[in-house]
Specification:
Number of strands of chain B: 36
Largest sheet of chain A: 5 strands, antiparallel
Strand content of chain B: 15-25%
Structural class of chain B: alpha+beta
CATH topology of the largest domain in chain B: Aldehyde Oxidoreductase, domain 4
Radius of gyration of chain A: 19 Å
Number of helices of chain A: 12
CATH class of the largest domain in chain B: Alpha Beta
Distance between the termini of chain A: 61 Å
CATH class of the largest domain in chain A: Alpha Beta
CATH superfamily of the largest domain in chain B: Aldehyde oxidase/xanthine dehydrogenase, molybdopterin binding domain
Helix content of chain A: 25-40%
Strand content of chain A: 25-35%
Order of helices and strands of chain A: EHEHEHEEHHHHHHEEEEEEEEEHHH
Radius of gyration of chain B: 28 Å
Strand order of the largest sheet of chain A: 4-5-10-6-7
Oligomer: heterodimer
Largest interface: A-B, 43 and 54 residues
Number of strands of chain A: 14
């Protein structure tokens, strides 16, 4: 039995949603399909009747400023995100994260929406989006709604979206202001599956030598991509210096749940890497924020 | 749907579940597009869609509607201008895209299987970035894997093509040093005979073949590591529409077991019989399509009585371990004895002992196994397959069919890499059984998952080394004990572990040796031949020990090796007197000289291996590491080592050399062509090479043990000389001169001032009743069995390598920056091919050290997808400096000895020694685990 029966390329959002609702068997939306197609081919996902390709829709392929936000369509290929001047300007962590997903050929078809819908706790795209305070735009036949990104994740590999009725159309990200910046960092191992041992994205706003505001996302640190809100709270308003980061790491280690995953890393190793990534991502974001606000502080 | 393919409008409807690669290959015949992994990992299937490279194995064909698709078949037509190449290459390269020309000229083409993907990815890069940097090329080609690891040549070729495209000038050829003593052809840079077809997509590999009425075969695998088959019911599978045959053990007409040395491998495991690993076969299916065959596998019902698997060789040797085979779990106890090791330790002033572990690794050739069996009208069976040992395939297929060997013809196909992993029979017998049962051609293609599960691996090995020395570093006694995990079946396990054992004391002189190896059966996948053949493992252990000894004694690690190095006049641990061709010291000297040049510390030995921090990044530590190695050429140990070759002259003046020896990408065809061209003083382009056909080519023996340049090379050499003499005697009679006065110059035979085109001699010979061809069976010098103290091998190659690594002390991450490799190859017959072997060998050795880990847990394979088994990419490729050392061996063709394995062997210990030098962490288990490095660093802080 073929792993899909019908593959359709609707030209409008409405058509795509109708197709999902009216398909005679199971239907799934697909963009690059670089995860879904492998799951289908290798039997981890049961065969589906209809695959509804969303890469020809205006709504899912836009990458533009919409009033005071950056909109990135769910089906925009990662290679376009990596090169987009808008993303590099307003969401550098996302540009960095997107450049790490898959390989060059995969990034020409793989989408940010797919990275998020796959709902892995260490998905580089999802981690960057979380730190950038992205919200998701979700369409159904009644219209569009917005939801905080974190609400899309139920658990490892489990998305909150209703595959039959809901289509993730894209992401809204706040635009960067002076003194704000972001960075994404990860550590891999050269053997085995190309999933980060640990990754982290940090967005911050800098005022003189103070971390005025900060958002930290880290994975895998639990069943879902994690916002380290307690660490953020600890660091917020504090000066950027070693004496701040060391206790900040203690807070981070207290609020994360690093696991040992066979063939990838022990929890102990991840705890060590958390410190490395916190320092590195924080430093990168801090320096960038300084460049954007003409301040320079080095510790 | 409508789309454009290679510039032409195509109207075709997509099928359910169809990927673009299937549409291109199966329905449009564009077989230049290759499938390596079918899981988005290897990049071989890369095509260009709307200007961007994408993976056609994971791209629904329906999605290509309205798009502009380019495959390798269309690349030449995208050439902006048809540039004239240099005059001598004009004919060869005319009409090719500069990228294709550059790949041919730079030797970037080896097995060729990844090349379409490399070229299309590179083309997309140059289309948007006409002036790429090295970093740009590496970024773009990161996931287009090449297991021959021609990454440095690919990089240089892309740069040269970009330059040509920008300037409009011909592609500039590479600067490759020739042999130090080049002849007219031998030792000069020559292009592979199959390079052009491999860059145009015209090269045909087994899976590219189709025959009318062809069925598709698949194999039902046991999926359990150990157990007894209690019930097997194939009736539902047989009843499935589209299934033509389902066979089980009782349907095998001939011998039920196969193997290369020992026939212990059941072709199908029958009811009441034992399953010994997850990849064992219980039934085979032939159906009208691969999908139906796969569906039929699901309908086969098997019940097993599960047994506790034996998962490691030490446990397998325990007296209470259950026996996996009737004769027990010990495949072979291999012993090397020299002197009196107890006395040696008593005389030693220092004794060190340490145990090392190496992992299973997989060949991961980009072309998975494929066999097609085709019954012929005259009652024979043809088997189309890329195999390293065509005559052994013929023998094993014939045995299973119960036929005389001559009824089977193996027609070898281009091979997308082998590295030792295509020596054992995989689908050949199954395809033949199905073809015999159905009377139709049957294709049996492994997917990557099946390839990883089933074929033999590199032996996981435990090696204990006890080393005794004098304070001045003189080695006195070495004792080694090896446990080799040969898995479920013997394959070449005994031979591999013998090589591991005889090489386990390194390329050093020492009076006292005791080496014991236990090659043990387990319920893991079988282990067999893999480039390095056991020596990769033992070199890691002994070369680590040499550094440990040097440190303990406060001696220079290079000096201690020089002091003990084998030289002409040495006696090896097996008692062999080395009377010639031992270039080890020169390899050491050359590497050190190059290191000193790079480091610029005036040759201060202490500075060479010192740990340095990286300016601006104090957490990064760099250091060089050093290792040496030796590796036998040829089978040795008393095995008859022979090869046949036939050379024929045609009326058009061209020549053909024929032998069954295998071309797996390593370049044997180039070497054979060059030898024959040299002997006739003829242009290599006039020499055709036919290999791997058991009807048309004489037996060249197995392509293993770095033996083909030497053994088959000599067969071709002597066949050419025999033919030359026959021609000379014909002409001598005709012109009434002594045969010695007949000369051969560039396609002409010159006699007494006359010149006649070589081709005209054909008619002269025929008129005399002679055929213008000569067959020569070359027997390599006799060797003696292990334990008899004689000549164990007729030649050894030697090598030294230095590797520079960078270790991140915050994460343990390690990368290799530079490798200097000096190899004593006797004589560099084919410098372009040699460079490919050296660079590819170093990268493969680096993979063995850093990236590759074939994980088996409780007999079950964890790394059963390419996504879980990582081979090196272009991103990880270090700068590689190759130094060629030529200490000729008298019997070798023009002095040449083996190359294919030695180039890869010292890399792993050079890297792990470098890690120690950088951060003080001794790696004694492979692959390097960055987490362990970090934890070791913390505990030492």
């Amino acid at each position: 039995m073929p792993v899909w029966e019908k593959y359709i390329l609707p030209a409008s959002l409405q058509e795509a949603l109708e197709a999902a609702a009216s398909a005679p068997g199971t239907a799934r939306f697909i963009a690059g399909g670089t995860d879904l197609l492998l799951d289908l081919q290798q039997g981890r996902h049961p065969p589906v009747h209809t695959l509804i390709d969303i890469t020809a829709l205006a709504e899912t392929t836009a990458l533009e400023i919409r009033s005071d936000e950056l909109f990135i369509g769910a089906a925009v290929p990662l290679s376009r995100i990596v090169q987009s001047p808008l993303v590099i300007e307003h969401a550098q962590a996302l540009a960095e994260a997107s450049a790490l997903i898959g390989g060059p050929q995969v990034r020409n078809t793989a989408s940010l929406g797919g990275n998020v819908c796959h709902a892995l706790p260490a998905a580089d795209g999802a981690i960057a989006l979380l730190a950038l305070d992205a919200s998701a735009e979700i369409a159904d036949r009644r219209g569009c709604r917005r939801a905080p990104l974190g609400e899309l994740f139920l658990g490892p590999g489990r998305s909150a979206l209703d595959p039959r009725a809901e289509l993730l159309t894209g992401f809204y990200l706040p635009l960067k202001s002076s003194g704000q910046a972001s960075a994404h960092r990860r550590v891999m191992r050269p053997q085995g599956v190309a999933i980060a041992i640990l990754n982290m994205a940090i967005w911050l706003a800098r005022h003189d030598d103070l971390i005025q505001d900060i958002r930290i996302a880290v994975g895998p640190a639990g069943p879902k991509p994690l916002r380290a809100v307690q660490t953020e709270g600890f660091l917020r308003g504090k000066p950027y210096r070693k004496e701040t980061i060391a206790p900040g790491l203690d807070v981070l280690l207290a609020e994360t749940h690093f696991r040992t995953s066979p063939h990838r890393a022990t929890a102990e190793y991840r705890r060590r890497l958390a410190g490395v990534l916190l320092e590195d991502a924080l430093q990168a974001a801090w320096q960038r924020a300084g460049e954007s606000s003409e301040h320079q502080t080095v510790i | 749907m409508e789309l454009k393919i290679n510039g032409k409008h195509v109207s075709i409807e997509p099928e359910s579940g169809e990927m673009l690669v299937d549409l291109l290959r199966e329905r449009l015949g564009l077989t230049g597009v290759k499938v390596g992994c079918n899981e988005s990992e290897c990049g071989a299937c890369t095509v260009i869609v709307n200007g961007e490279p994408v993976l056609s194995c994971t791209y629904p064909s329906a999605k290509a509607a309205g798009k502009d698709v380019w495959t390798i078949e269309g690349l030449a037509s995208l050439s902006p201008v048809h540039l004239p190449a240099s005059v001598e290459q004009e004919d060869l390269l005319r009409g090719l895209h500069p990228l294709q020309q550059a790949f041919v000229l730079y030797g970037a083409v080896q097995c060729g299987f990844c090349i379409p993907g490399q070229l299309m990815t590179a083309h997309a890069l140059l289309s948007r970035n006409p002036n790429p940097t090295q970093a740009d090329i590496r970024y773009a080609l990161k996931d287009t894997l090449c297991r021959c690891a021609g990454y440095p040549t690919i990089e240089r070729a892309v740069l040269a093509a970009a330059e040509s495209l920008r300037s409009g000038k011909p592609v500039q050829p590479p600067e490759i040093p020739a042999s130090h003593t080049p002849l007219e052809v031998i030792g000069t840079v020559q292009i592979r005979p199959d390079a052009v077809e491999k860059v145009t997509g015209e090269a045909i590999y087994t899976d590219d073949l189709k025959f009318p009425g062809m069925l598709h075969g698949r194999v039902k695998r046991a999926g359990i590591p150990h157990g007894i088959v209690r019930r097997l019911d194939v009736s539902k599978a047989r009843a499935l529409s589209g299934v033509v045959a389902v066979l089980t053990a009782e349907d095998i007409p001939g011998e039920r077991y196969h193997g290369l040395v020992i026939f212990d491998w059941p072709t199908l495991v029958g009811v009441g019989e034992r399953v010994r690993y997850v990849g064992d076969s219980v039934a085979i299916v032939a159906a009208e399509s691969r999908e139906i065959a796969s569906q039929a596998l699901e309908l086969i019902e098997v019940e097993y009585e599960p047994l506790e698997p034996i998962c490691d060789p030490v446990a397998a040797r325990s007296p209470d371990a259950p026996a996996i085979h009737p004769q027990g779990n010990l495949l072979k106890h291999i012993k090397v004895r020299k002197g009196d090791v107890e006395q040696g330790f008593a005389e030693s002033e220092i004794i060190l002992e340490h145990t090392f572990h190496t992992a299973f690794t997989d060949h991961a050739f980009i072309e998975p196994e494929c066999s097609i069996a085709r019954p012929t009208e005259d009652g024979r069976m043809e088997v189309y397959v890329g195999s390293q040992i065509p005559y052994a395939d013929r023998n094993q297929v014939a045995r299973a069919l119960g036929w005389p060997e001559e009824r089977v013809r193996v027609i070898g196909q281009l091979m997308g890499g082998g590295f030792g992993g295509k020596e054992d029979v995989m689908g050949q017998i199954h395809a033949a059984l199905l073809a015999n049962a159905t009377g139709r051609p049957v294709k049996l293609l492994f997917d990557r998952h099946e390839s990883l599960l089933v074929h033999p691996k590199r032996h996981a090995t435990q090696i204990r080394v006890k080393m005794g020395a004098k304070r001045d570093g003189t080695l006195v006694a070495v004792e080694t004990e090896l446990y080799g995990d040969t898995g479920a079946y013997a394959s070449l396990g005994e031979k591999v572990m013998t090589r591991a054992t005889t090489h386990s004391t390194g390329p050093y002189e020492m009076p006292h040796v005791r080496a014991d190896c236990y090659a043990m059966y387990t319920n893991n996948p079988p282990a067999g031949a893999f480039r390095g053949f056991g020596v990769t493992q033992s070199a890691f252990a002994i070369e680590s020990m040499m550094d440990m000894l040097a440190e303990k004694l406060g001696l220079d690690r290079v000096e201690i090796r020089r002091k003990n190095a084998l030289k002409v006049g040495s006696v090896t641990n097996t008692g062999q007197f080395l009377d010639e061709s031992v270039g080890l010291k020169e390899c050491i000297d050359q590497v050190i000289a190059e290191m000193d040049r790079l480091i610029g510390q005036g040759g201060d030995p202490a500075a060479r291996f010192a740990s340095r921090s990286v300016p601006g990044a104090p957490h990064l530590r760099r250091a060089w590491g050093f290792a040496v190695a030796f590796k036998n050429t040829g089978l040795g140990g008393g095995a008859p080592d022979k090869a046949g070759a036939e050379v024929e002259l045609f009326a058009d003046g061209s020549l053909e050399v024929r032998t069954s020896s295998a071309e797996l990408g390593q370049g044997l065809v180039t070497v054979l062509r060059m030898i024959v061209a040299q002997e006739f003083n003829q242009s290599p382009s006039k020499v055709k090479v036919l290999v791997m056909d058991t009807d048309l080519t004489p037996d060249g023996g197995p392509t293993t043990a770095s033996r083909q340049t030497y053994v088959t090379g000599n067969a071709a050499l002597y066949a050419a000389r025999t033919l030359r003499q026959a021609i000379a005697s014909t002409l001598a009679e005709k012109y009434d001169v002594p045969p010695e006065q007949v000369r051969f110059v560039e396609g002409l035979a010159q006699v007494n001032g006359f010149s006649l085109p070589l081709g005209e001699v054909v008619a002269e010979m025929r008129a005399e009743g002679r055929e213008p061809r000569a067959l020569y069976e070359y027997w390599a010098p006799a060797t003696s069995p292990l334990g008899t103290g004689g000549k164990m091998h007729f030649a050894y190659s030697f090598a030294a390598q230095a590797a520079e690594v960078e270790v991140n002390t915050r994460t343990g991450e390690t990368r290799v920056l530079r490798v200097i490799a000096a190899n004593d190859v006797g004589r560099a017959l084919n410098p372009l091919g040699l460079q490919g072997q050296v660079e590819g060998g170093v990268v493969m050795g680096m993979g063995n050290a850093l990236t590759e880990h074939f994980v088996v847990e409780n007999g079950r394979v964890f790394t059963d997808r390419m996504a879980r088994y990582r081979i090196p990419s272009i991103i990880q490729t270090p700068e590689i400096i190759s130094l060629v050392v030529e200490h000729p061996t008298a019997e070798g063709p023009y002095g040449a000895k083996g190359v294919g394995e030695i180039v890869s062997i010292p890399t792993t210990p050079a890297i792990t020694n470098a890690i120690y030098n950088a951060v003080g962490v001794r790696i004694d288990s492979l692959p390097v685990d960055q987490e362990k490095i970090l934890l070791a660093l913390e505990s030492s802080r």
